[in-house]
Write a structure and sequence with these properties.
Jelly Rolls; Arc Repressor Mutant, subunit A; six-stranded antiparallel beta sheet; 9 helices; Homeodomain-like_sf; transcription; HTH_AraC; sequence-specific DNA binding; DNA-binding
Length: 250
């Protein structure tokens, strides 16, 4: 398949303005979509999925979906289409996949060569490496899962509220009519994430959008409850594998 891999994997990129809606559609091929910068919100089979930088969405063939660009700046988005005969290597349902820096660099190289009309053996090899990277990427059900649980739903709203980011998780849990231990068990059952991890992901979504809008690291660090900018930068890099300055310069 080495000489024909370009017939089985297609890589394209798109640019979306804020609030631009991509109309509902589906494909006979599988879709792996991820953002080079910016955030897209997807509606897939009645559920909401977020696609921030460094996390992409795998959509099996014939999965109807629509999306909207959330970022204030232009969102640069990549769509990798996978031929149905290769989709057996991936999950039969929608998954959120972790994007490693190597995969991002690989996609940049593929797009650059495609733009130049290069379809050499090297280009085909890049597509094979891309396929291997997608097959081995860490998968999750959701990046920021939601629930209708009577206690967890309002709690998640508080945890995702930027005006409350400066308050600790323990402070937010202290006024609830059940023990912290019970809430943590409930979180794992309903979300498959700890409350602290869920809140960190909510914070990073907010931080990405604010960095792209030009907010200073010092001000963001304060808003997210960090006493020192260096601690916030370390947190940001742990989740995005980039510093705020690197993300801003993309």
């Amino acid at each position: 398949m080495l000489k024909q891999i370009q017939n089985y994997i297609e890589v394209d990129d798109f640019f979306y303005q804020k609030d631009e809606v991509i109309a509902p559609h589906s494909s006979l091929w599988g879709d792996f979509n991820f953002s080079l910068n910016g955030i897209l919100e997807y509606e897939i089979e009645g559920q909401i999925y977020l696609s921030p930088p460094n996390y992409g969405l795998w959509l099996p063939p014939q999965t109807a979906h629509t999306s909207i660009a959330l970022d204030e700046q232009i969102t640069h988005y990549v769509c990798i289409r996978v031929h149905p005969c290769l989709c057996r290597h991936f999950a039969p349902d929608t998954k959120t996949l972790s994007i490693r820096p190597f995969l991002r660099h690989l996609v940049h190289e593929i797009l650059e060569q495609k733009q130049q009309g290069i379809t050499t053996l090297h280009y085909q090899h890049l597509l094979l490496v891309l396929m291997d990277q997608l097959k081995t990427a860490t998968a999750y059900d959701h990046y920021l899962p939601q629930t209708n649980h009577v206690l967890l739903k309002p709690l998640l709203q508080q945890l995702a509220d930027p005006q409350l980011f400066h308050r600790s998780l323990q402070q937010l849990l202290s006024g609830l009519p059940m023990s912290e231990r019970h809430l943590l068990r409930l979180s794992q059952q309903e979300l498959q994430l700890s409350l602290s991890e869920w809140r960190n992901r909510a914070k990073i979504l907010y931080a990405i959008a604010q960095v792209r809008q030009g907010k200073t690291v010092k001000k963001l660090a304060y808003e997210l409850g960090y006493q020192h900018s260096s601690s916030f930068i370390e947190f940001f890099k742990r989740y995005t594998e980039q510093t705020p300055a690197q993300l801003r310069d993309i």
